[in-house]
Write a structure and sequence with these properties.
The protein is mostly helical. It has a single domain (about 10-290), classed as Formate dehydrogenase/DMSO reductase fold. Helices cover about 70% and strands about 0% of the residues. It is built from ten helices and two strands. It has a two-stranded antiparallel ribbon. The relative contact order is 0.14.
C-alpha cells in the first residue's frame, strides 16, 4: 500500500483525492446513478416501457442529478455553467448540458408514453442525449492527462457498457416484479451481450493501463494486490461479475422462465454492487505521475 505524506506531494506516485474524498464521494455516487438511470431509460425506450422509463428518469434526476448538484457546492448557480463558454472546454459543463437536455426531453417523452403516444423523432433525440449522459463521465475523467488509470480511450467505453448493463438489469428486474415479463427474454439478450462486453473491456482496460506507464502499473498493483485487493476480488470479480455470469449461464441453459426470480434479483443486486465498487476503485486508485523522479516502489 502506498501512503503519501504532505511533503511527498507529486514527488512520489500521488493519489488524487478531489473526486473521491469528502465532498468527492458525491461525485462518485452522481456518476453511478446518472449513468444507471440514463441506461435504464435507454433500454426501456426500445420497448415503450413507461414505468421503467420513468424509474430510470427519476434515478438520473433525483439520485444522480441531486448528488451532482450537491457536489458542485452552489446548487442554485449550476445553470451558469450551461450558458457560459465553459462547456467548450469543461466536460462537467458539457455533462450538465447533456443531463439537462435528457431530463427535459425525457420528461416530455414519458408524458406522451402515459398518454399512449410515442413520437419516434422525439424518442431518438432523447436516446441520443441519454447515451451522451451515460458516456460523459468517462470523458470527464479521460480528459485528465496526469492520471494514466483515467487517461485511456477505453474508460468511456467501459462506462457506457456498465451503464447500459446496469440499466438492462434493473429493467429486467422491474418487469419481472410488475409481471410484464413479455420483454424479459429480449432484455436478457441485452444483459448477456453487455456482460460479455464488460468482461472483455475490463480485462483489456486493466492490462493496457498496467503496461502503459509506471503510474498505471502502480494503480493496477494497488487494485489487485494492495489495500483494495479484497474489494476488487470479492465485490467486483466474485459478486459483480462471476455471480451475474453464473445466473446468465443458468438462464441461457434452462430458459428465463425456469430461472428462480429471487436468484435474478440477487444477480442484479450483485451486478450493481460490482459496478459501484469498480467506479470507486477507478476514482480512489488514480495516481498522478510524479513531477520529480522517485525510486521504484516495492510491493
Amino acid at each position: 500500500m502506498i501512503q503519501s505524506r504532505p511533503y511527498e506531494f507529486m514527488v512520489k506516485y500521488t493519489p488524487q483525492k478531489e473526486w473521491i474524498e469528502r465532498r468527492g464521494i458525491l461525485l462518485w455516487l452522481a456518476f453511478f446513478f446518472i449513468e444507471l438511470g440514463a441506461g435504464m431509460f435507454f433500454v426501456s425506450s426500445f420497448y415503450s416501457e413507461k414505468w421503467a422509463a420513468l424509474t430510470g428518469w427519476l434515478i438520473c434526476a433525483v439520485l444522480g442529478g441531486g448528488t451532482h448538484l450537491l457536489y458542485l457546492g452552489h446548487p442554485t448557480r449550476f445553470w451558469r455553467m450551461l450558458i457560459s463558454s465553459g462547456w467548450k472546454k469543461s466536460w462537467i459543463s458539457r455533462g450538465l448540458f447533456f443531463v439537462s437536455a435528457f431530463l427535459l426531453l425525457g420528461a416530455i417523452h414519458i408524458g406522451l408514453l402515459f398518454a399512449d403516444t410515442n413520437m419516434m423523432p422525439l424518442m431518438i433525440a432523447v436516446d441520443v442525449f441519454a447515451f451522451l449522459t451515460i458516456i460523459y463521465g468517462g470523458f470527464a475523467m479521460n480528459y485528465v492527462n496526469g492520471i494514466p488509470l483515467w487517461n485511456t480511450a477505453l474508460l468511456p467505453i467501459l462506462y457506457v457498457v456498465s451503464g447500459l448493463w446496469g440499466g438492462a438489469e434493473v429493467t429486467l428486474a422491474m418487469s419481472l416484479a410488475m409481471g410484464t415479463d413479455t420483454i424479459g427474454p429480449s432484455v436478457e439478450e441485452w444483459i448477456r451481450i453487455l456482460l460479455m462486453g464488460f468482461i472483455l473491456i475490463m480485462a483489456v482496460y486493466l492490462v493496457s493501463v498496467r503496461y502503459g506507464s509506471k503510474a498505471g502499473e502502480v494503480s493496477i498493483k494497488e487494485i489487485a494486490f494492495g489495500k483494495w485487493a479484497r474489494l476488487f476480488w470479492i465485490v467486483v470479480v466474485l459478486l459483480g461479475i462471476a455471480m451475474p455470469a453464473a445466473v446468465v449461464i443458468t438462464s441461457f441453459s434452462v430458459g428465463l422462465e425456469a430461472t428462480p426470480v429471487p436468484l435474478i434479483y440477487i444477480a442484479v443486486l450483485c451486478g450493481l454492487l460490482g459496478d459501484l465498487a469498480t467506479r470507486y476503485l477507478i476514482l480512489r486508485v488514480g495516481f498522478y505521475h510524479p513531477l520529480v523522479p522517485s525510486s521504484v516502489y516495492t510491493y
